[in-house]
Amino acid sequence: MKITFLGTGTSHGIPVIACDCDVCTSNNPKNNRLRSSILVESNGLNILIDTTPDFRQQMIRYKVERIDAILFTHHHADHIFGLDDVRRYNELQPDPIPCYASKESLEVLNKIFGYAFNPPQIGGGVPKIEFFETENNVRISGISIEVIDICHGKIMINGYRFDNFAYLTDCSGIPEESIKKLQNLDVLVLGVLRHEKHSTHFNVAEAVEMVEKLRPKQTYFIHMCHRLEHEKTNAELPDNIELAYDGMEITFESTD
Question: Would you say domain 2-135+146-245 falls under CATH 3.60.15.10?
Fold first, then answer.
């Protein structure tokens, strides 16, 4: 299994518009963060998690030539607004792209991208996609993916577990039932915003505490804002935790 971090930033992205802080003006490319998304390559399939507003840029930058399925974590703008640009893949692939999301997210996607749910006409301007509601599990061409409920403030959103790997973005809490589903992980990707407390995201201390509770072998933080400088923050983290960065790739053996 191979994971490519297409983006590791929070909703503003980094650099932030009209900001001259040390992170936004940094010469270190690891401090430049597109909106958070990953590509999972497994069993010959490319599975995308979230279509950010930077989707087109991410696909070009990392030379993604095929998308076999899309999983949505939730329906906030920084996780869905690039969906229309999947149209290019419809020119390259014969079948509609299956997209999986919770019932609540599907309702929002239907409002925003209604023309994709109920195309008024056939043409290049309409992405060809098929929407499916996630329940406990998603199965894509033999790959079993477990849906993990996590808290994003007052709402519940989807995390995803692929065998010994889990992806939990925009997380402010994990219910006990979900904690049971997150045992024995080789790799955990977890959202963390900044050092200061926030109502809908883990801060660094809370995320480290959750990692200590889940005890994965290795953890990568994502969804960071411009208050976390890459090198300085990494130096302060435990040895088994580090900030991911745009373009980072990790490869590990799946037990499936």
Answer: yes
